[in-house]
Backbone:
């Protein structure tokens, strides 16, 4: 693939990937109209999407296609973690405002999948997440629900707990508006 903008090339589709790259994945292409592609290599995909559920659903469809060659356990763990973190980025970082964008990078190596999600928000700190299950004391998985009710938030708050149980490493930047996660895979995946 050339260094030019893949969206300007007639030999690429709306993902920025060439027809040969599409065939190399061995799957048909779903609709990804909301996604802006910045890099479209099979081992390094970088894109941005507006902060809305349609874009989240399109990216989820892309992940199904992109991770098709991974073992099911790895594929589902990565998709689960990615979706939870992306939903947090869209809802909390972007306030579900379609004029704001989340940027993601997906690196697929022989031994690991590494994903980065950066949102437009000011970030958060773990110590301020008393409305999330991740802050609950051991043995009290629902303590945060009372806090959510007091804050007028919808039921939930289990996303980061689900993510931590799905992947191998989770790292936030200082501001808390960017996250990287890693899921190890074996060389035969």
Residues:
């Amino acid at each position: 693939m050339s260094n030019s903008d893949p969206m300007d090339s007639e030999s690429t589709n709306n993902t920025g990937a060439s027809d040969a790259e599409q065939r190399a994945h061995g799957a048909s292409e779903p609709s990804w109209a909301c996604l802006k592609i910045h890099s479209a290599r099979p081992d390094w995909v970088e894109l941005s999407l507006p902060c809305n559920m349609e874009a989240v659903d399109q990216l989820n469809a892309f992940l199904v296609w992109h991770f098709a060659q991974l073992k099911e356990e790895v594929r589902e763990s990565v998709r689960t973690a990615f979706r939870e973190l992306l939903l947090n980025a869209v809802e909390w970082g972007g306030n579900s405002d379609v004029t704001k964008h989340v940027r993601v990078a997906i690196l697929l190596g022989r031994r690991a999948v590494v994903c980065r999600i950066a949102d437009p928000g000011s970030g958060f700190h773990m110590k301020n997440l008393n409305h999330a299950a991740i802050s609950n004391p051991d043995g009290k998985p629902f303590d945060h629900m009372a806090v959510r009710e007091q804050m007028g938030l919808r039921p939930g708050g289990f996303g980061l707990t689900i993510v931590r149980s799905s992947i191998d490493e989770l790292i936030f930047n200082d501001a808390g508006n960017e996250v990287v996660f890693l899921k190890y895979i074996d060389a035969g995946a």
Notes: The beta strands are 36-41, 44-50, 101-108, 112-118, 169-172, 178-184. The chain has a mean pLDDT of 80.
